[in-house]
Amino acid sequence: MSKTVTNKAHFSPLLLIVGIFAIIFSTIVHGTSTNYLHTVQQTAEDFVTDSLSAPQNGELQVTATQLDSRLRLAECTVPLNISVPGKQSMTGNVTVLINCPSEGWQVYVPVRVKLLLPRVVATKPLPRGTVLSASDLTIKLVENRFQRSVSFEDPNQVIGSKVKRGVNMGDTIEGNDICLVCRNDSVLIRAGGSGLNIVTNGTALGDGALGEQVRIQNNKSKRVVDGIVTGVGEVTVNF
């Protein structure tokens, strides 16, 4: 019994030293692995960033998803191979494949791409029928992929138009939300062709957003024509 106690006492310092070294070594390995995972993530992020061009008036945000900390990737002794497998679009979510030839590992790194563009948004809730004024609008950077239809960069493009359906505060003003030319509105008809330009008044027979075609009745001749919406209360007819 006493011998057993003596042996434990004899080996305790040795076991303690071994344990301390094991903890230190484990911490070093874990730290190295974690740092290298960050390097791999940053490599994927840089690859996508270098493949895209930032918009002149907007902002490009590229963020690699954090890799699982349980991954153990040996540090690569040669340059990493980087590619985007398949026919992926470089917008939205992109998966980057990173391969290390010397260590024989590969890993897929998800990367989120956000393209933010300046767009006209509502400064307050805008109920149906609201005629837009400057105080209703501001410009904000908005993620491009969330835009459903035509959007606008300049408030002057939509001031004076009428809200067709309610718009929440902070929402982008889109072509489907408003009519620059609305049914039964008085409109200015610009007609041109063969060097002849005519300006007259008419009545809209339907709603139209910027660039859309709408039927217009000439107030004088009562003739119905198709025109392209080119501004607030304005259509152009080409002969």
Automatic annotation (TrEMBL):
SUPFAM superfamilies: AFP III-like domain. This is Flagella basal body P-ring formation protein FlgA. Pfam families: ChapFlgA, ChapFlgA_N. Keywords: Bacterial flagellum biogenesis, Cell projection, Cilium, Flagellum, Periplasm, Signal. Residues 119-178 form the AFP-like domain. InterPro entries: AFP_Neu5c_C_sf, Flagellar_FlgA, FlgA_N, SAF, SAF_AFP_Neu5Ac, SAF_FlgA. It comes from Photobacterium sanguinicancri. Involved in the assembly process of the P-ring formation. It may associate with FlgF on the rod constituting a structure essential for the P-ring assembly or may act as a modulator protein for the P-ring assembly. Belongs to the FlgA family. It is found in: Periplasm. SMART domains: SAF.
